């Protein structure tokens, strides 16, 4: 079967059409990816769990249903992976933490249910920064992930395992989560497309929380079209998440081919100031010019408070996480220390042993920011500045349709380069965090390679619930470029 | 803005984290650096700005008062460290 | 110099919903441990709370009944602390912007005066689970069935000045929540529990340092615990000591309060708005819809019973303690058209029989209609009050309607004057000595003749007719 060797180069649509036409079976598609995982994952460490057995069982079942004509949707027979913070019933769900090293989830996350029902085949669970806290995938208790474009570099984080899996085609699509840039930054480092929809567009039920007012799930895949197809399946209201929004879900694939002529693109001057690596800036400039050449109108806008986004984020996110992670207490699930001498000992040692250093730092900062005497100075102040940041975007969107800029200040950095410097790591996310704080949709798609040979993604920010427009813009770009189809030579 | 070793200990206990003495200094340094970073906020004029707890300017959706759940004790307790007679066990709690 | 007692109360009323406040688990009492604890109640990773609409409606209901303000925008917050019966490590409660604020309840004082007790706020929150300290190899067992049960915490102003006032307030509130149907008021099962903040001061001085007495679950204990605590604080202050702000537990066996140690470091609760829950919007329409379903409130109904039916304050109060009882009484009163007769029977026979059998009025074997039928037989002189009580007892035991019992047992009252005359003639003939004494001025003997006549008629003689005839014959 000659086609089996090239299944990994197909789009989601290509896989779906292939299994529907009988060009190859779901089992062949599944095996193609399982084989690649077996071959390349030892080097990349992108998966924590590979669900080989259940994937093949699922493939048989889906093949049957497709043959009987019961299943023909856009994800029928399509393999995928999940970031290891989505609960998957009967499957290890670790959050890349020793705290949950043995946690087999008793239930499925909303999005896991959706993909299962659509006939997708779960290949496994992707490595990540522990509890999604990190920007390099180095805080994982299961070891760091390597960037397929240069295995001495980080893949970004926290959805680093997912990004590396897509870049090396160890899965055709994955779901990540983004709290301050955790989809967009690794997508940029790994030459893939990823979208963080508007807060509330996708249910958070079953997604292990980091910071509840910021967390949002989103698809990561080679192309905008793949993301649109996936978003069609997972977006929408869920009665189990009262912050999921009750607005109609458009067909995100329907508008992919719309024209971008006359599109007003805003460039926040603050995103192109000091701090942006020139080699990244050059690639961004070139992409902007391409949009201009296709009829888009470029306009400078200002987000005057965006430099405060990182400080705001490092109050709000730790505050929420300090509370969200209190449930990991060694009583009902998760790690319990050996021979606790009393209740306090049970709590303090189980939690100390179960959590890694970055998670503990954030829990402590958040606890401090919420504690008596500091609440107003830190938490309340951060909430106020958060509103100023949101208002900056509202002002900008009065003038332009979308905002574009860098996803990250640099290309992928070396493993270990920032590991011991939390502040340097935090500043990685200075362009993505403002968007998260405002709850706006943001995406990254590949626009080429910097002078150092590493990929660069551009960040595209839309107004609330304008995901269709954003996917349309990215798809148009991908219709005249081929960056998103390029594979690292080593993993071709 | 910085945090003292005493404060770190206090915060760690509030968060039920047992910081070993030899690691205390590292946490003091890192947390102080983070507080320095977030300390920039103090200079911002936020007079009259309503705090933003949530990105969505919407009201909460409520559910009807209907019992939809049934007993899954066995399944849920399969992941528990210690159970007996359907109860979760912890070291003796003294009231 | 005198001491003044200052008391504020926090009542936790468990709301009578079907399901939990943030999940679809049942809140039924008494299930096997952890069989009513679902993913959300257990605080499993990834789960989210979804607020029960009924709980909000019940909070509004209470708010309207105490003349409070209902917040158009209400916020849920997390109260963070670690305890094994608190699965998430935080309790979802309300801190700023509770659903209900600034209400009041009027209580009656012993001297007959009235006093207004301010209610600062009433907020929604979730209950915790239960820790069981029986022996599990020296460990504690945790049952999370109760975790997530909806509570309304009703916080009073420090307006009460004695244990008696505190109990009067609690009883009033207890009646009200049951009246409104928001809480079953079962103190045994913990559906209505109270914490008391107690302090003492010299009159006119600022408030003293208070102690909080936890989990008082009967009116008797509340009164005793407060009195003990007041005595303790006065002794302490008069011997030059200081009251420490702390939480104390009342021990009914030893009738004392004692300090709960080891809770002091749990005091920094780090409240912040729960990011999983958006603000709750309560519109004027929502409030109007709840208002439309409000029953007549107990104090209003009591006043009406006094004004419209001429009942005494005492009777009216007794009859409005419970909405079902008040409804039963009203049905009987209007059915027999004699409120006082109805009141006597409901407060008397009916309440006694219910209490003896441990029943609620809804389960009474004698319906209001059946009682009306019985009372009509008193009104038309078929039955004396005494015989009517026997008939009632038979009806209670399921022997049929009033008329059926009367017919079967031949209990019809004798109103035929010739029959009564015959009975009296015989008694006069058989007791010449007593007749002579009576006639010579010993009036007290009249009762003897009544007794004899009643006995001879097996109680069936109409008392009024009997009196008339007896008087005539004796005066002869």
Automatic annotation (TrEMBL), chain A:
Instruction: Kindly report, in one word, the top-level EC class recorded for this enzyme.
Output: ligase
Job description of the protein: Allows the formation of correctly charged Gln-tRNA(Gln) through the transamidation of misacylated Glu-tRNA(Gln) in organisms which lack glutaminyl-tRNA synthetase. The reaction takes place in the presence of glutamine and ATP through an activated gamma-phospho-Glu-tRNA(Gln).
UniProt lists the gene as gatA
The protein's annotated catalytic reaction(s) are: L-glutamyl-tRNA(Gln) + L-glutamine + ATP + H2O = L-glutaminyl-tRNA(Gln) + L-glutamate + ADP + phosphate + H(+)
InterPro entries in the cross-refs:
Amidase, Amidase_CS, Amidase_dom, AS_sf, GatA
Query: Where in the numbering of this chain does the Amidase domain appear?
Result: 28-471
The subunit structure is: Heterotrimer of A, B and C subunits.
Keyword terms, alphabetized: ATP-binding, Ligase, Nucleotide-binding, Protein biosynthesis
Q: Which domain of life is it from?
A: Bacteria
Protein known as? Glutamyl-tRNA(Gln) amidotransferase subunit A
- EC number from the UniProt entry: 6.3.5.7
| Keyword hit for Nucleotide-binding | yes
Which family does the UniProt entry place this protein in? Belongs to the amidase family. GatA subfamily.
| Catalytic site positions | 83, 158, 182
TrEMBL record, chain B:
- Asked whether the keyword Ligase is assigned, the reply is yes
Q: Which domain of life is it from?
A: Bacteria
Record Pfam families: GatC
The keyword Isomerase appears for this protein = no
Q: What is its EC number?
A: 6.3.5.-
For this protein, the record's InterPro entries field holds: Asp/Glu-ADT_sf_sub_c (IPR036113), GatC (IPR003837)
Q: Which reaction is the catalytic activity of this chain?
A: L-glutamyl-tRNA(Gln) + L-glutamine + ATP + H2O = L-glutaminyl-tRNA(Gln) + L-glutamate + ADP + phosphate + H(+); L-aspartyl-tRNA(Asn) + L-glutamine + ATP + H2O = L-asparaginyl-tRNA(Asn) + L-glutamate + ADP + phosphate + 2 H(+)
Report the top EC class in one word: ligase
Q: Which UniProt keywords apply?
A: ATP-binding, Ligase, Nucleotide-binding, Protein biosynthesis
State its role: Allows the formation of correctly charged Asn-tRNA(Asn) or Gln-tRNA(Gln) through the transamidation of misacylated Asp-tRNA(Asn) or Glu-tRNA(Gln) in organisms which lack either or both of asparaginyl-tRNA or glutaminyl-tRNA synthetases. The reaction takes place in the presence of glutamine and ATP through an activated phospho-Asp-tRNA(Asn) or phospho-Glu-tRNA(Gln).
Family membership noted in the UniProt record = Belongs to the GatC family.
Matching PANTHER family:
GLUTAMYL-TRNA(GLN) AMIDOTRANSFERASE SUBUNIT C, MITOCHONDRIAL
Q: How does it assemble?
A: Heterotrimer of A, B and C subunits.
Q: What is this protein called?
A: Aspartyl/glutamyl-tRNA(Asn/Gln) amidotransferase subunit C
Native species of this protein?
A: Candidatus Thiothrix phosphatis
From TrEMBL, chain C:
Q: Which Pfam families does the protein's record reference? A: GatB_N (PF02934), GatB_Yqey (PF02637)
Q: Which reaction does it catalyse?
A: L-glutamyl-tRNA(Gln) + L-glutamine + ATP + H2O = L-glutaminyl-tRNA(Gln) + L-glutamate + ADP + phosphate + H(+); L-aspartyl-tRNA(Asn) + L-glutamine + ATP + H2O = L-asparaginyl-tRNA(Asn) + L-glutamate + ADP + phosphate + 2 H(+)
Q: Which domain of life is it from?
A: Bacteria
Whether ATP-binding counts among this entry's keywords is: yes
Residues in Asn/Gln amidotransferase domain copies: 327-474
Q: What class of enzyme is it?
A: ligase
Per UniProt, which keywords does this protein have?
A: ATP-binding, Ligase, Nucleotide-binding, Protein biosynthesis
EC number(s) for this protein? 6.3.5.-
What does this protein do, in the record's words? Allows the formation of correctly charged Asn-tRNA(Asn) or Gln-tRNA(Gln) through the transamidation of misacylated Asp-tRNA(Asn) or Glu-tRNA(Gln) in organisms which lack either or both of asparaginyl-tRNA or glutaminyl-tRNA synthetases. The reaction takes place in the presence of glutamine and ATP through an activated phospho-Asp-tRNA(Asn) or phospho-Glu-tRNA(Gln).
**UniProt subunit comment:** Heterotrimer of A, B and C subunits.
State the family named in the UniProt similarity comment for this chain.
Answer: Belongs to the GatB/GatE family. GatB subfamily.
The protein's name in its UniProt record: Aspartyl/glutamyl-tRNA(Asn/Gln) amidotransferase subunit B
């Amino acid at each position: 079967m000659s086609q089996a060797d090239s299944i990994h180069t197909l789009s989601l649509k290509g896989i779906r059409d292939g299994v529907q036409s009988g060009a190859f079976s779901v089992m062949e598609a599944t095996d193609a990816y399982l084989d690649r995982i077996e071959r390349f994952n030892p080097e990349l460490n992108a998966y924590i769990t590979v669900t080989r057995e259940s994937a093949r069982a699922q493939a048989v079942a889906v093949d049957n249903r497709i043959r009987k004509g019961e299943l023909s949707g856009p994800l029928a027979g399509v393999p995928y992976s999940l970031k290891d913070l989505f609960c998957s019933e009967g499957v290890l769900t670790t959050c890349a933490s020793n705290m949950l090293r043995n946690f087999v989830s008793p239930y499925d996350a909303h999005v896991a249910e959706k993909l299962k029902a659509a006939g997708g085949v779960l290949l496994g669970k992707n490595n990540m920064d522990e509890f999604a806290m990190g920007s390099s995938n180095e805080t994982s208790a299961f070891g760091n992930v390597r960037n397929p474009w240069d295995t001495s570099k980080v893949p970004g984080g926290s959805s680093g395992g997912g990004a590396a899996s897509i870049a090396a085609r160890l899965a055709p699509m994955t779901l990540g989560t983004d709290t301050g840039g955790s989809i967009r930054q690794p997508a940029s480092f790994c030459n893939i497309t990823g979208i963080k929809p508007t807060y509330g567009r996708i249910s958070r039920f079953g997604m292990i929380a980091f910071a509840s007012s910021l967390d949002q799930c989103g698809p990561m895949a080679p192309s905008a079209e793949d993301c649109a197809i996936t978003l069609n399946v997972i977006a929408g209201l869920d009665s189990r998440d009262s912050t999921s929004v009750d607005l109609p879900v458009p067909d995100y694939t329907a508008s992919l081919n719309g024209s971008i002529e006359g599109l007003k693109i805003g460039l926040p001057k603050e995103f192109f100031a000091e701090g942006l690596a020139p080699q990244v800036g050059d690639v961004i400039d070139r992409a902007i010019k391409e949009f201009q050449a296709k009829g888009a109108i470029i306009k400078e806008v200002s987000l005057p408070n965006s430099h405060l986004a990182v400080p705001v984020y490092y109050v709000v996110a730790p505050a929420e996480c300090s509370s969200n992670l209190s449930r990991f207490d060694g009583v009902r699930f998760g790690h319990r220390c050996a021979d606790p001498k009393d209740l306090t000992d049970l709590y303090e040692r189980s939690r100390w042993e179960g959590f890694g250093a970055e998670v503990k730092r954030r829990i402590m900062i958040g606890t401090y920011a919420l504690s008596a005497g500091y609440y107003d100075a830190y938490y309340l102040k951060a909430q106020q500045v958060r509103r100023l940041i949101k208002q900056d975007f509202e002002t900008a969107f009065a003038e332009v349709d979308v905002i574009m800029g860098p996803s990250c200040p640099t290309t992928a950095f070396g493993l270990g380069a920032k590991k011991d410097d939390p502040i340097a790591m935090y500043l990685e996310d200075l362009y993505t965090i403002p968007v998260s704080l405002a709850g706006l949709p943001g995406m990254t798609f590949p626009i080429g390679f910097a002078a150092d040979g590493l990929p660069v993604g551009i960040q595209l920010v839309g107004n609330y619930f304008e995901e269709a427009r954003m996917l349309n813009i990215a798809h148009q770009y991908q219709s005249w470029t081929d960056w998103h189809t390029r594979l690292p030579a080593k993993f071709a | 803005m910085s945090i003292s070793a005493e404060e770190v200990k206090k915060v760690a206990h509030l968060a039920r984290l047992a910081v070993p003495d030899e690691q205390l200094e590292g946490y003091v340094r890192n947390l102080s650096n983070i507080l320095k970073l977030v300390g920039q906020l103090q200079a911002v004029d936020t007079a009259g700005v309503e705090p933003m707890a949530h990105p969505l300017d919407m009201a909460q959706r409520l559910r009807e008062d209907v019992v939809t759940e049934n007993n899954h004790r066995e399944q849920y307790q399969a992941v528990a460290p210690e159970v007996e007679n359907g109860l979760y066990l912890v070291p003796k709690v003294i009231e | 110099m005198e001491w003044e007692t200052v008391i504020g109360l926090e009542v936790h009323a468990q709301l009578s919903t079907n399901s939990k406040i943030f999940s679809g688990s049942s809140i039924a009492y008494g299930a096997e441990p952890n069989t009513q604890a679902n993913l959300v109640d257990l605080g499993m990773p990834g789960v989210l709370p979804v607020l029960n609409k009924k709980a909000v409606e019940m909070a509004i209901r209470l708010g309207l009944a105490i003349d409070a303000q209902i917040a158009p925008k209400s916020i849920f917050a997390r109260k963070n602390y670690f305890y094994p019966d608190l699965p998430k490590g935080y309790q979802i409660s309300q801190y700023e912007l509770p659903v209900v604020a600034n209400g009041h309840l009027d209580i009656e004082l012993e001297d007959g005066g009235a006093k207004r007790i301010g209610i600062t706020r009433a907020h929604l929150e979730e209950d915790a689970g239960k820790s069981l300290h029986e022996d599990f190899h020296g460990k504690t067992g945790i049952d999370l069935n109760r975790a997530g049960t909806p509570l309304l915490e009703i916080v009073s102003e420090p307006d009460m000045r004695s244990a008696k006032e505190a109990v009067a307030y609690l009883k009033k509130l207890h009646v009200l929540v049951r009246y409104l149907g928001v809480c079953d008021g079962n103190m045994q099962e913990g559906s209505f529990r109270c914490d008391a903040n107690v302090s003492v001061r010299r009159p006119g001085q600022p408030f003293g340092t208070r102690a909080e007495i936890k989990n008082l679950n009967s009116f008797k204990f509340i009164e005793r615990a407060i009195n003990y605590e007041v005595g303790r604080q006065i002794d302490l202050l008069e011997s030059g000591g200081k009251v420490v702000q702390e939480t104390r537990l009342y021990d009914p066996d030893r009738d004392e309060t004692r300090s709960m140690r080891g809770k002091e470091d749990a005091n920094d609760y780090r409240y912040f708005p729960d990011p999983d829950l958006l603000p709750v919007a309560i519109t004027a329409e929502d409030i109007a819809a709840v208002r439309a379903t409000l029953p007549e409130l107990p104090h209003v109904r009591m006043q009406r019973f006094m004004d419209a039916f001429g009942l005494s304050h005492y009777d009216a109060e007794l009859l409005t303690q419970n909405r079902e009882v008040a409804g039963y009484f009203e049905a009987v009163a209007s059915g027999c058209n004699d409120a006082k007769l109805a009141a006597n029977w409901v407060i008397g026979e009916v309440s006694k029989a219910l209490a003896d059998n441990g029943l609620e009025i809804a389960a009474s074997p004698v319906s209001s209609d059946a009682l009306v039928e019985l009372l009509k037989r008193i009104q038309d002189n078929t039955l004396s009050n005494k015989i009517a009580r026997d008939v009632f007892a038979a009806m209670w035991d399921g022997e049929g309607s009033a008329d059926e019992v009367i017919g079967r047992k031949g209990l019809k009252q004798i109103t035929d004057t010739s029959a009564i005359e015959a009975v009296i003639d015989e008694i006069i003939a058989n007791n010449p000595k007593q007749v002579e004494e009576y006639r010579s001025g010993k009036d007290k003997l009249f009762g003897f003749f009544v007794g004899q006549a009643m006995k001879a008629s097996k109680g069936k003689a109409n008392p009024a007719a009997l009196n008339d005839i007896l008087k005539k014959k004796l005066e002869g």
